[in-house]
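WP5 quarterly update. Target: ABC transporter ATP-binding protein. Source organism: Psychroflexus salinarum. Length: 417 aa.
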Amino acid sequence: MPKLMKEQEIAVAEDKEVATSKETLVEVTGLSKKFCKDLKTSLWYGVKDLIAGYSGNKKKRELRPKEFWAVKDISFTLKRGECLGLIGHNGAGKSTLLKILNGLINPDEGKVVMRGRVGALIELGAGFNPVLSGRENIYNNGAILGFTRKEIDEKLQHIIDFAELEEFIDMPVRNYSSGMKVRLGFAVAAQMEPDVLIIDEVLAVGDLGFVLKCFKTIDTILPNTAIIFVSHSMPMVSRICNQIILMDKGQAKFQGEDVSKAIDLYYTRFASNDVKILYTDNNIVLDYIHIKSHDFSDGLFQINWNDDIQIELKITSKLDKIPVPYITIFDKEQRPVAQLEPFDGIFESIDKRNLTYVFYVKNLQLSKGIYNMNLIVGKAYGKNPFLRINDVLSFQVKHNLDVWPPLLIKTKTTLAK
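Structure tokens (predicted):
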């Protein structure tokens, strides 16, 4: 009897090992892909590589003239229930990496292991035959994922209902709008319940109601799926991702589980203190604008949440009357979040040529993140401006909490007896 129990324990342990080994669905090791900037040169390099490969010379090659690394030495693993966010500017290598993962192009170096069924939504309309109807494309995509016709039959109505295309499901896909293609593509990719789901920026095409429905579906399927998600919308990335890679020129500039840190680095990468004059009638010159008594680093003034701040603005004016400056604050998504109360026009100083304005803000309660200011100098807001400048000043608010609403309001909370 003890011997039998010991054998059962060994069998259970082996089953656990199998389950653990199945847990990792995506393994990427040292992945690299290079491209050539010139088509003619690229074809010539391809012929040379083909001959070299045929002769058995497959040694690792360095970059040749006009070549560049679109993806360089990317490695990560992804388990069931995890979501990896890929962020970076346009041309950073995100889409190339997704195409390698989906098998559309081959890497020059490295290895990709994908386990289970893979659903991908990486290009608008990718995987659809434009001549076929939406219904026929559902069957085609399902077959590619390895589903039988009976299994697709069972899921068909759910897909059509989710995509909200009942009226147009038998129309050729080439006649679909971009939004309709996104609806159908995501419905197929999600409702087929793949083990690995790859989503590119295509969700940005959909309307807000559908995007919200997509994220509700992602929340539902994530525990049983590994998701790779590419987006320029940091609120979306922050909402669903528990791992992140910040890419720049094909390389991982930051990688790990600290999603908020990667997002801060992403915004810092695009923070600019360059003055962008949209309009001037040459009667007003901005001498400087800064936040007094606060550190300045990496092009940003550093502010702790709930600090008192003083924004000092100096202009040289050729006008007879005292102009009024208006400052609007924008968040990292370039949404206007606040307007400073305009100057009331009362001066103790009579020098109308050299004017210094100081805006006093007590207990700044903007939530953690990077912000910038736009400046208008005029008679009245939006009317007859003398000077308009975008991104005239950038600053970073620091706090230990990551929240996406623009305000983090200080409160005193107690439990009622």
